[in-house]
Amino acid sequence: xxxxxxxxxxxxxxxxRTGQLIVVGLDGSNTSxxxxxxxxxxxxxxxxxxxxxxxxxxxxxxxxxxAPYAHAAAEETRELVGAELEHEARQRxxxxxxxxxxxxxxxxxxxxxxxxxCAAHADLVVVGRSMKRRHHVMGSLGRRLVSRADxxxxxxxx
Length: 158
Prior knowledge:
By secondary structure, this protein is α/β, with parallel strands linked by helices. Helix content is about 45%, strand content about 20%. The chain contains five helices and five strands; from the N terminus they run βαβαβαβααβ. Strand 2, helix 2 and strand 3 (about 100-105) form a beta-alpha-beta unit. The longest helix is centred in the middle third of the chain and has 25 residues, at about 70-95. The radius of gyration is 16 Å and the shape is globular. About 30% of the residues are buried.
């Protein structure tokens, strides 16, 4: 079931697609850049386009603790990271002649990627393999996306 909150991605009215529309998760990690590179190649092969999705969590990292949390500073940092990722992604996509939309979502990564993919009627969702040990036990982003079966998912393994 898709979260009822609107996605910040709004497809362009009347836009005609010729190739695959690929949604790719991008968080700045090496594996997410590997996934982005694979998605750029796939978009080039199919004369498609990309939507890069950067997701930041909503919750406070110190929730439930007595430690103070600077909301404004944390949000400013997230916005700066998002702007840097967008700049780098646009450069890489431009070098390959690929059309790119960049979306910054807040919340759970699976929910955000699914919302954007459904709103855009994406043909494919691409993410990088998690390198965090706890994800091999608790379930990675890729595994959680695949289990939803809302769209075909490619997990790029470096």
